[in-house]
Design brief:
GO terms for molecular function: oxidoreductase activity. This is SDR family NAD(P)-dependent oxidoreductase. Belongs to the short-chain dehydrogenases/reductases (SDR) family. This protein is of the alpha/beta class. It has a domain at 19-78: Rossmann fold (3-Layer(aba) Sandwich). It has helices spanning 32-43, 55-68, and strands at 23-27, 47-52, 73-78. The chain has a 3-stranded parallel β-sheet, covered by helices on one side. Helix 1 (32-43) links the parallel strand 1 and strand 2. The protein is globular. Bound molecules: NADP nicotinamide-adenine-dinucleotide phosphate (NAP). NADP nicotinamide-adenine-dinucleotide phosphate (NAP) binds at residues 27-28, 30-34, 52-54, 57, 79, 82, 85. Residues 27-28, 30-34, 52-54, 57, 79, 82, 85 line the site of NADP nicotinamide-adenine-dinucleotide phosphate.
Amino acid sequence: MGGHGTATRRWTSAEVPDQRGRTVVITGANSGLGFETAQVFAQRGATVVLACRNPDRSADAEARIIAKAPTAKVSTLQLRHPAASLLPLRAAPEP
Ligand SMILES: NC(=O)c1ccc[n+]([C@@H]2O[C@H](COP(=O)([O-])OP(=O)(O)OC[C@H]3O[C@@H](n4cnc5c(N)ncnc54)[C@H](OP(=O)(O)O)[C@@H]3O)[C@@H](O)[C@H]2O)c1
């Protein structure tokens, strides 16, 4: 087992438990940390909403997630302006 105060083993996304029944909304989900997070949640069964500014980039991210997990429940929600980025969340659909 791991020792105290010393990283003896790396945590990986394989350890993320079942996320079925949960809905997650992820901003910045078309690249980087946001995309990787969205992908893992989708692969674990969560309903994932990619909240992004650029529709082309978010559609591409959605396609990449579906390509790896064809049964993933993923959709996109376009954020119209960074200054109003939280407002569209109120119109997010029910899962
Ligand atoms: N990567 C790392 O190792 C690391 C480590 C520590 C901290 N961080 C921090 O974590 C955050 C994400 O990093 P990342 O590497 O994943 O970056 P990234 O690949 O550049 O992704 C940034 C994401 O945020 C979106 N975004 C940027 N500005 C926005 C705004 N004003 N309103 C709405 N969406 C916006 C981008 O969307 P668009 O496509 O529309 O631009 C993109 O989807 C950054 O703040 C970074 O400084 C990263």
